Structures are given as C-alpha cells and as structure tokens.
Amino acid sequence: MKIVIVGAGLGGLVCGRILQRAGHTVEILEASDGVGGRVRSDRVNGFTLERGFQVLFTAYPAARRQLDFDQLDLQTFDPGAVISKDGQRYTLSDPLRDPASVISSALAPVVTLRDKVKTGLLAASLIRKSIGETIAGPDTTIEEYLKQEGFSEKYINNFVRPFFGGVYLDNSLKNSAKAFKFDFKMLSQGRTTLPAAGISRIPAQIATELFTRNAIRLNSKVTGLVKDKSGRYTGAKLEGGETVMGDVVVVSTPAPEAARLTGLDMPKGQTSTINLYYSGSAPLYSGKKIVLNANPDPFVNNLVLVTNISPQHAPAGQHLLSCTVLGVPDESDETLYRKGLDDLKGIFKGDAKAEAALPGYKPLAVYRIPYGQFAQPPGIHPTLPDNCSGLPGLFFASEFTEASSQNAAMVSGEKAARLILKG
Ligand SMILES: Cc1cc2nc3c(=O)[nH]c(=O)nc-3n(C[C@H](O)[C@H](O)[C@H](O)COP(=O)(O)OP(=O)(O)OC[C@H]3O[C@@H](n4cnc5c(N)ncnc54)[C@H](O)[C@@H]3O)c2cc1C
To answer: N or C, which terminus of the chain has less Cβ within 10 Å?
Structure first.
C-alpha cells in the first residue's frame, strides 16, 4: 500500500514511520523547508533558538514509545518555578525532587501553606491515577477546578496563571481542566527537559528512517486533495500542479489547513505567542527553574535562561535568555525587544547581580507564532475529530484529534497508522 501524508509535524512523522516499518510505501509532503512543524529550532551564530519556548515532558507516554531519550541528550529543568512579584523573587519547589529548595519554598508567601500541601497531595493523587482516571468525569475551566479543589486566589494568580499561561499560551485559565490535570500529572510524574541540540532533535530523530527511504519531500505545499471516481481519497495536488497518488491520504496539518483541504469541520480558535531572545555575557540568575512574572499586566509571561539548563544552546561564555509573550501584539521588533527589557527590569528589581547583568543583554531574535495551539475550552476533547474521517481513504494524524501537545500529536499518528494497518 502507498500512503500519502500531508505535513511532517510529529503527527505525520510518527504515522509515516509506523507505516513504513510495517512494510508500506510512505510519501510525506511538507510545505516548509524542514520537518517538525511547530517543533523546530534554528542555529544562529552558535546559538540554538527554539521557534517558541517548548519542552519535552519525559512522562509523555507516546514520547516514551516513540523516542530514544538517551540519544536526545536531554537536559533537565529543576521542578517548580521562581515567581517574581512586587520586586521580590520566591522559589516554589517540589520537596521530593528538589530538596535544596525546600526551605525557601516553604517560606514563599506568594502562595499559602495550605496551597503547598494541596499541591503535593494533588501531584501524589494524579501520579497514582491512570490517564483515563485523570481525565474522567465532567470538564470545567482550570480556574473553576482549582477553586473547587480549595486552592487560594494567590496560588491561582501567582503560580498557575503565569505557569500554565505559558503552557497553553493563554493565561485566562478558561481552558479545559482535563488538559490541566493531564499536564499536571506529566509534570509531577517525570522530568521537564530540552534536547541539548534543540527541540528539533525530536522530529529529526523520528524522520531519520523516513529520510533514508526518501519518504519525505520538503518545500512541497499541498493545495488540494485528489479523489477517484468513487469519491475515495487517493492523492494530493502540489503547488505547481504535480499530483502525488497513493492508496490512502493522511492529513497531518494544523486544524485550519485540514479544514481548508477537506471541507470538514475542525476545532476553531487558537492561542498565539511571541518568543523573544536576548544574549548576554553574564548569567542573569542561577538555577534551572523557569521564572514566572506574577506582576500585574505582564508583558513577558515567563522566561528561562536556557543556558542554565543546556549550556550547548550558546557559544562558550554566552548566555541565552528566552522570554515568552502571550499573544502576538502588532508591534515592531524594536518595540518588542524594548518592552521585553523594560519588563525584565521589573522582574529582577532589587536583585543586584541581575541588575548589573541586564544592561549587557542584547536582542538576538524574535519569533512570532500566530498559531500556537488550537483553543481547548472545557468539554472540547470528546468533540474532536476522529482519526478516521468517515470519508473513504481519508485519515487524520495531528494534534487536533486528541489535544494540543507533542504527546497528542504522536498519539494521533499512532492511532491513524493502526487504523490504516487494520484496513
Ligand atoms: C510556541 C509553542 C510552544 C509549545 N510548547 C509545547 C510544549 O512545551 N509541550 C508540548 O507537548 N507541546 C507544546 N506545543 C504544542 C506542540 O508543539 C504541538 O501540539 C504539536 O507539535 C503539533 O504537531 P502536529 O504534527 O499536529 O502539527 P504541526 O507541528 O503543526 O505540523 C503540521 C505540519 O504540516 C505542514 N503543513 C501545513 N499545511 C500544509 C500543506 N498544505 N501542505 C504540506 N504541508 C503542510 C506544516 O508545515 C507542518 O510541518 C507548543 C506549540 C507552540 C507553537
């Protein structure tokens, strides 16, 4: 059998590799100049820049099945976060996995002691549960769920809003509590990591076998799908007019493009982000935790001195600072860099070492990402499209059949491949 796959993101790559390993011919048509979709990195003057701050949770079940973690040379974040609020920095940690931070964490007044105990209990209960049990039952918003569970406003606003705002590229906390519970479980159960050579090592690893068999065509944008006389999907038309034929077609693009190509209903709405990079010659802070901005009206939602976690991300003696802005405001690069630096001054206010280092930080790159994830309001997950489109010969292998994450995209790829193999 020959399978034509549209899109070489994680969903398309995983689907293609499984089918190729099963002895089928695969042709993946990718519009851009590389594999990975939203999981890509650039090398710029010795720096490795992720196209949007992105991490790999080692607890992701599909990542454990599909990836060779050793080969990825994973660099590990410390659990918890540093919270910046009103000119002070507070460390919140996981007492079991980061004992060095226990005392400072216990004293941090940005959340209540009750919140800290409840966080530990929630993590322990989610670790004990299966994924099915974790996401069972009715859905609600993250904010509503946390209130029901008895977490304080302080905890919600100072920790969850910036932390999960960074995860979902949306700090309203109006999205699905099921997605939150799943991610909280993943965070508690495994490590948060980044491949030393950049996040793009993940798709590159999956693509290696496919490239060996010339199964991926880059710079090949699909403009339409092809059906035979009986209405069965059998191929794809490329920009330029060429038609690529097969026995079945798998659409592995983001939801809006899948809707355009198939005419079917797809999840609507999106979250977006800007990733600002700066480089400096002195470290801005020490430690391997993410820094959250809990000040009012944040411009930079969260930041990380990437080189503290992965020194290989910058040339020797240089430090790489990655700042996440939520949304894509219509501003020039210069304005974005300036606003970022202004916010950084507030985030590190009163920290003499950081205040001395900050003027040495220079703008390096800006990435605007209008389509970060599809919107995930409460209740959306059971309504998402199936891998089997219901139309003959047409399948989906993309995040939008599951949830918006690397794990979801890989799970979708696995499920689509299984359906095709079943015939
Ligand atoms: C900034 C950011 C941060 C994120 N952080 C995390 C994180 O920390 N952890 C996590 O688990 N997830 C994270 N995600 C989400 C995760 O990256 C995505 O859910 C996942 O990569 C989606 O994979 P996919 O294969 O479904 O789609 P995509 O990665 O979007 O791949 C689709 C591919 O289809 C191609 N394509 C589109 N149209 C056509 C066409 N007409 N013809 C041919 N090819 C086409 C695209 O070029 C692309 O390569 C983040 C996403 C972003 C943007």
So the answer is: C
